[in-house]
């Protein structure tokens, strides 16, 4: 953890922010371990990993549950448009047939698939390959599942001297600490969202695709410092900002006004989009979000 100073919302104070590597820091040949706690966090971080790879001209492959839904989520975040997928630069596929053969896992088969992806990428002339591996398949009762650490070790050895980056995605709620510890040593980086506040009632973290912040739970003045830091860091970034509040069940007037003041502080042509559920959007409507220049209020269904 590291301390950070807050100056953007009127006074100086200190909060702590998680010091893990950020998803945007990953480079070619990184073998990174992403731990996530909720589906939105996984989708947000993976979308940034995909977006940055495509921006660098690389080929991107994501092994995931429900590939079509994952593709739709990427598109919703403005990543991997249809033409990119059609051209073969972005592929989302199921683990079955790639890492798995029925209800069995074998390192040799999985690594053969992995090396085939590397060879195909090189043969097509791409400058590099990014592979995202949703490791949820390893929670199933599979023959050979004890080979998971050996699989991670083989990936680490294979990446040396290549132009390939791998992002292994582990649900920190569903995977036990022993399993996570057994694979962590084979990764070059530990990746998680920058988190400004996290307790039983509230989570405030950075959002990467689209850029901004994400709020979940109940937000009141007790989290003023963390909210101020999150907003000020988002403002310092170039481009438009999205504040995602679909999983926020309560926001007091003070914090809602902080968010509106931060949104109004942006100079054109930068804009702010507030994604809220109906109960939260009414608070921002009272503060004038519906008529404020540069601010878009988008009401989404409760999750």
List keywords for this structure.
303 residues; alpha/beta; 9 helices
Structure notes:
The chain has nine helices and 16 strands. It has 303 residues and is of the alpha/beta class. The strands form four sheets. A six-stranded parallel β-sheet has the order 5-4-8-9-3-10, sandwiched between helices. It has a six-stranded mixed β-sheet with strand order 11-12-13-14-15-16, sandwiched between helices. Strands 1-2 form a two-stranded antiparallel sheet. The chain is globular. It starts with a strand and ends with a strand. The N terminus is likely disordered.
Layout of secondary structure:
Blueprint (H helix, E strand, L loop, with lengths): L1 E5 L6 E5 L13 E6 L2 H17 L3 E5 L3 H10 L5 H5 L3 E4 L6 E2 L2 E2 L1 H17 L5 E6 L13 H12 L4 E8 L5 H8 L4 E3 L3 E4 L3 E7 L2 E9 L4 H13 L4 E11 L1 H12 L7 E5 L1 H9 L8 E5 L4
Parallel strand pairs: 3-9, 3-10, 4-5, 4-8, 8-9, 13-14, 14-15, 15-16
Antiparallel strand pairs: 1-2, 6-7, 11-12, 12-13
Helix pairs in contact: 4-5, 7-8
What's the short version?
The chain has about 300 residues and is of the alpha/beta class.
Helix content: 25-40%
Helix run count: 9
Strand content: 25-35%
What average pLDDT do the residues reach? 90
Order of helices and strands: EEEHEHHEEEHEHEHEEEEHEHEHE
Distance between the termini: 31 Å
Main β sheet profile: 6 strands, parallel
Shape category: globular
Number of strands: 16
Task: Return Rg in Å.
Answer: 20 Å
| Strand line-up of the largest beta sheet | 5-4-8-9-3-10
Low-confidence blocks of residues: 1-19
Class of secondary structure makeup: alpha/beta
């Amino acid at each position: 953890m590291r301390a950070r100073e807050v100056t953007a919302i009127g006074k100086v104070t200190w909060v702590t922010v998680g010091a893990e590597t950020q998803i945007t820091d990953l480079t070619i040949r990184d073998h990174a371990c992403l731990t996530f706690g909720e589906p939105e966090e996984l989708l947000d971080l993976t979308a940034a990993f995909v977006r940055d790879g495509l921006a660098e001209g690389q080929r991107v492959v994501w092994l995931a549950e429900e590939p079509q839904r994952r593709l739709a989520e990427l598109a919703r975040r403005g990543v991997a448009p249809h033409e990119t997928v059609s051209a073969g630069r972005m592929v989302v596929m199921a683990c079955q047939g790639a890492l798995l053969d029925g209800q069995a896992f074998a390192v040799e088969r999985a690594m053969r698939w992995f090396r085939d992806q590397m060879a195909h990428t090189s043969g097509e002339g791409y400058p590099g390959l990014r592979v995202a591996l949703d490791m949820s398949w390893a929670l199933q009762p599979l023959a050979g599942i004890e080979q998971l650490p050996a699989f991670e070790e083989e990936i680490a050895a294979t990446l040396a001297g290549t132009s390939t980056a791998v992002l292994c995605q582990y649900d920190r709620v569903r995977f036990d600490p022993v399993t996570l510890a057994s694979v962590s040593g084979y990764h070059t980086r530990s990746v998680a969202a920058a988190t400004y506040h996290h307790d039983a009632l509230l989570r405030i973290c950075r959002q990467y695709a689209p850029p901004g912040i994400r709020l979940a739970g109940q937000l009141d003045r007790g989290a003023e410092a963390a909210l101020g830091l999150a907003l000020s860091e988002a403002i310092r970034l170039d481009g438009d900002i999205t504040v995602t509040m679909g999983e926020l069940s309560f926001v007091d007037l003070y914090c809602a006004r902080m968010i509106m003041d931060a949104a109004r502080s942006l100079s054109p042509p930068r804009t702010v989009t507030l994604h809220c559920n109906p109960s939260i959007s009414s608070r921002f409507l009272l503060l004038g979000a519906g008529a404020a220049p540069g601010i878009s209020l988008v009401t989404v269904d409760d999750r």
